[in-house]
Amino acid sequence: MPMSPRFLSILTVILVAATGLAQEPQAAAPTAPFAYVRGTALHILPQTTSEESGYFSLCQGLGGTVYVGTAMYNENAYLVAVDPATAAQRIAVDVNAAAGLTATGYAAQAKIHTRNHVAASGRVYMGSKQGYRRDGDTSEYPGGYVLVYDPATGRTENLGMPLAPFGVIDVVADPTEQRLYVVTCETEHWLVADLSARPVSYRRIPAPELIDYASTLVDGRGRAAAITDDLQLAQYDPATGDVTVRPIHVDGQPLAPLRGEHSSNADIPTWRLAADGRTAYLIRMNEPTLFAIDLYSDGPAVTARSFGPMIAGKGPDSRAALTIAPDGRVYTLVRVQNDTGFGRGMLHHLLRFDPATERHTDLGVLAVRNPDFFDFTATGPDGKRRPWTHGYHTLPDGTLTPLHAHMGLLAAADGSLYATILYPYTLLHIPRPD
């Protein structure tokens, strides 16, 4: 049946309109004004945390296994072992089981908050500490324990309580593994122990109180170093028992405490020892300036250099996230306010310093390669979003990125990086940066 001229006219109009729609350019996807550093996220075993959290308890064993400490407030703490090849997880250390404990509430060993020192033997040293007191809880915290896990046997040895009633924030063995250094919290006492005898006996090093979250570095001469509460360098020589405390001079001027907009914890340092055994790279929590301290300095002051800010931005925050890669380059994470206009919240930048060129590089903002690693849409019995799942946000281009807190950074033996992120508690594996 032939089509009428009127129908042909209408059909032509429809075809022309459809062609125009087909050729209409699609809206371009928004483009981030910064680079991304993409990593694969792994949700740490949820049965090992109470609030999807942990701290800077992050290390790699000699066999390649990555170990992550967790916090289960009012109950217990665990060390989780992660196979880097398969991402399989298992509980390596149960603190209550290892120490023969049953206490709950504020009396519980609620966190592994130490950096998990890996000795030359491959044994992993760690310590436990208290959590927070809930309303109505009258229990008292007895003090933290030092534990050592042997991957070769799968056994954990309890090395006792260094100093009651304080928790343990840092544990480091010297290269001979005959001597152990411990820092307590919430008052930071510095202790040393002889590991050749059992039971292990701890004694205080006669030094001023250390800074919050202090850690010990053992330099190439075998001397131990720690930062004091007034930002001086304390050094202990185990051969003589001598302790020296000296100011740190940065480019000829005393290292000054931070002031102004920063929090009361602004000066908390994170430092790591370079392969030369004498250079300690350091960054403070709320200042993205990188320092290099010469631990072999002679004279009345310790010599240090400033390499300037690693990044510009408001509200800088670096949470124990400084590490040195096998090639000697220094990496850190710094969170800054997102004032780019591309989304809101905060951005976590991976930064690198190359000692050979003395140059900083901003490698980009952390991004999750596999955003389906956790179901952020799941709700609880009340129909609301599950608690402790608020640590990520999505940018305008659909990229999932950490929002609130990173809690550690580790350079692995193969040059790749691992970071811990809160809410949910996540291990983020980043391939070796170019």
- The CATH superfamily name of one domain is TolB, C-terminal domain
Number of strands: 32
CATH architectural type of one domain: 6 Propeller
Mean pLDDT: 93
Helicity, as a percent range: under 10%
Cα radius of gyration in angstroms: 26 Å
Low-confidence stretches: 1-22
CATH class of one domain: Mainly Beta
Number of helices: 2
What is the SS-derived class? mainly beta
Main sheet makeup = 9 strands, mixed
Subunit arrangement of the protein:
single chain
The coarse silhouette is: globular
Our estimate of the beta-strand percent is 35-45%
**First-last Cα distance:** 69 Å
CATH topology of one domain: Neuraminidase
Description:
With 434 residues, the protein is mainly beta. The chain has a domain of 158 residues: TolB, C-terminal domain (Neuraminidase, 6 Propeller), CATH 2.120.10. It is built from two helices and 32 strands. Strands 15, 16, 17, 18, 19, 20, 21, 22 and 23 form a nine-stranded mixed β-sheet that branches. The chain has an eight-stranded mixed β-sheet with strand order 24-25-26-27-1-32-31-30, with no helix packed on it. The termini are far apart.
